[in-house]
Structure formats: C-alpha cells, structure tokens
Amino acid sequence: MEIPKAGGKGVRVLGVPTVADRIAQTVAAMYLERRVRDALAARLAQVGLELHPNKTRIVYCKDADRRGSYEHTSFTFLGYTFRPRLSKNRYGKHFVNFLPAVSKEAIKAMGKEIRSWRIACRSDMSLGDLARMYNSVMQGWVNYYGRFYKSMLYPLLRRINEYLVRWACRKYKRLHRREQRARELLAGTARRYPNLFAHWRFGLKPDGWAMGAV
Q1: pLDDT tens digits for range 75-99
Q2: pLDDT in tens, 5-31
Q3: pLDDT of 190 above 90
Q4: Is there a contact between 199 and 138 (Cβ–Cβ < 8 Å)?
C-alpha cells in the first residue's frame, strides 16, 4: 500500500521506514539502552554487584513482530546462542522467531571431544563396545542441546556416523577402501538395532535419515 510522502511530493510504501524513521529509531534505542543499563547497574549495586563495562550490552530480540534494526540482535549464554531464527507455526507457515540453539563455540568444543575419541582407530572394539563407551556423553549433549532447535546438532552427530564408517573399513578387511559398502552395512545395523547409539535414538541414522527439522 502506497501513501503520500511528507510535503505531498510522490508516494512511499506503507511500513517501509524512511531515513528519518531510521534516525529516530537509532536515537530512541540509544536513549533507552542507556536508561536500561543505568537501571540495571543501580539495582545490582544494591546487592554489591556491578556490570562489566566491556561485556555488558543490551540485545534487541528481533522477530516477526519486532523488525527494528539495532546493533546487537544476538547473544550467547550457557552454550546457547539466542538470535532470530526461522520457525514454523501450527498451520505450517514459516515466520521469524527469537530462539536459542547450540552455539558455534559449543559445537566446536564437542567436535574436538569427538575427534579425541579416535573412533576410526578403535578396530579392537565392537560397535557395542563403542556405544557403551561414548553413549553417556552423546546422550548428555542430546538432552541438553537438543531441547531447542535440535536440527543445529545434526551436522555434528552425522560426523559420528562417518567416523563409524571409517571404523568399519579398518576393522573388516572386506570393507577396506569400500566406504559405501561400509555405510550400507552400518545402515543395516541401525535398522536392526535403532537404539544402539544415543544419536541414532535421536533420529540420526547412518543412511542420512533424520526425524524433525527444528
């Protein structure tokens, strides 16, 4: 919908902020940020605490209803990054919501932990041995980071399946340099024993099948 511009010269689209609107939003945001920061500092001072001058910031929780442009629109807390993300409502319509998901730092730390297991080199162990050794750790990750926007965990957990494929190639001579055959064998095992590994129970199977998107 188009509306007349100020002064009567031309038209503009309703809902699209002008340069003046942007300036007003920025000034208002800076004013409110200072007010909120000062109020928080005063309240914390009452209990003997203080805000960190460099780490403290006010974050704008941007979503489908809050569409303003501000300097900070995300933050990380307890391994979760909160930011605008695509969601789907009960009618199947997509919209932007402000949601938590596992942070990049947490993904990096878990990836480092998985590499330290050297699964591909554990050819002296069976699949059951590997499951018993690492399931408790993987289940903890799934329980904690899989509560919100669980699809962000999928790439990390699929990596474990690839390590298991390499393990099979090393353990069985008939699978040496035959990764596709090893992948099919592992997929068959997952179909017969879907609860063997924690991430299989979570929905990540060796054949790439996964349940749920968010």
Answers
A1: 899 999 999 999 888 888 998 999 9
A2: 555 566 555 555 565 555 555 555 555
A3: yes
A4: yes
Number of H helices, E strands in the chain: 6, 5
Torsion of the alpha carbons at 98, 103, 107 and 112, rounded to the nearest 10? 180
Cα radius of gyration rounded to whole Å, the chain: 25
Q: How far apart are CA 198 and CA 131, in angstroms?
A: 8
Residue 55 exposure: Cα atoms within 13 Å on the Cβ side: 5
The SS3 of residue 28 is: helix
pTM of the model: 0.73
The span from the CA of 18 to the CA of 136, in Å, is 55
Pick the closest to residue 111 from 75, 153, 166 (CA basis): 153
13: Cβ contacts below 8 Å, ≥ 6 apart: 1, 2, 3
Nearest to 153 by CA among 97, 110, 94: 110
Q: Please choose, from the candidates 74, 76, 140, the residue with its C-alpha nearest in 3D space to the C-alpha of residue 102.
A: 76
Top mean pLDDT of 6-10, 149-153, 203-207 is at: 149-153
